[in-house]
Amino acid sequence: MVLDSFVRNASLGKKSLALLVDPDDLNEGGMKAIVNAAIENKVDYFLVGGSLITSNNLESVVDSIKAYSAIPCILFPGNAIQIHPEADAILFLSLISGRNPELLIGQHVVAAPVLKRSNLEIIPTGYMLIHSGRPTSVSYMSNTQPIPNDKPSLAISTAMAGEMLGLKCIYMDAGSGALEPVSSKVIKSVKRNIDIPLIIGGGINSKRRAQEALEAGADMIVIGNGAQKNLSLLAEVSDVIQYLNEALNVN
Ligand code: 1GP
């Protein structure tokens, strides 16, 4: 099961890489190249979704990932219509950094009966937006205020509350294409205060940023835009992850 692998890896200190595919940016040919690059560079998980999807590509992106690879395919939905039962799992995101009831529980009520009928593995996830220097699609679409990037105490308390509510992992996101990724200080502080896996994404568009997030305590990093613009970033980030994992002897 996907969540079991998150928990096992986090408990060993083993770092993972997730590649986020935005269905709006892709076609079938592009998908093959991305899936091949993901296999070659030992990507651990695919995430599929976006704050707003304007195309009908979600299903074909999931189907291509399933057809061309054995890498787990996890839905990362911006709303209740981004569900495809052929994926392996879904991050059932509650936007705990915000105070928009629709994204704390409303969309979940709409999605629950559909999810119950599917075989998707449900991964209850505390989703936290962290300020990234400018508004992002997700801050606009969610109509919520991100947590300031220099206020670790707010991020810590929010993540702790998520864990106490029974959520199984925390995803701190600066938003797609963020100017600034989640700061090392915030990652470190949150990691020290929770025992569930910590996922970090948004604005990780260089080897240096990936390394900083991982060294600060991210169990998994998510890369979207950076890889979509330049697939060779995957190889660079994968090297960093292999290096960190070799040091632990858990490869
Ligand atoms: C966004 O965390 C993801 O929700 C990935 O962000 O596209 O900036 O890599 P990027």
Describe the protein in words.
This protein has 251 residues and is an alpha/beta fold. The chain has a single domain, classed as FMN-linked oxidoreductases (TIM Barrel), CATH 3.20.20. Strands 1-2-3-4-5-6-7-8 form an 8-stranded parallel barrel, surrounded by 7 helices. Helix 7 packs parallel to helix 8 and helix 8 packs parallel to helix 10. The protein is globular. SN-glycerol-1-phosphate binds next to strand 8 and helix 9.
Structure in a nutshell:
By secondary structure, the protein is of the alpha/beta class. It has helices at residues 2-12, 28-40, 58-68, 101-117, 137-142, 152-164, 184-193, 207-216, 225-229, 232-248; strands at 16-21, 45-48, 73-75, 89-95, 121-129, 169-173, 198-201, 220-223.
Task: Please give a handful of descriptors for the protein shown.
251 residues; alpha/beta; TIM Barrel; 8-stranded parallel barrel; 10 helices; 8 strands; 17% strand; binds SN-glycerol-1-phosphate
List the helices and strands and how they pair.
Elements: H1 2-12, E1 16-21, H2 28-40, E2 45-48, H3 58-68, E3 73-75, E4 89-95, H4 101-117, E5 121-129, H5 137-142, H6 152-164, E6 169-173, H7 184-193, E7 198-201, H8 207-216, E8 220-223, H9 225-229, H10 232-248
Parallel strand pairs: 1-2, 1-8, 2-3, 3-4, 4-5, 5-6, 6-7, 7-8
Helix pairs in contact: 2-3, 6-7, 7-8, 8-10
The structure holds SN-glycerol-1-phosphate.
Residues 20, 173, 175-178, 201-204, 222-226 line the site of SN-glycerol-1-phosphate.
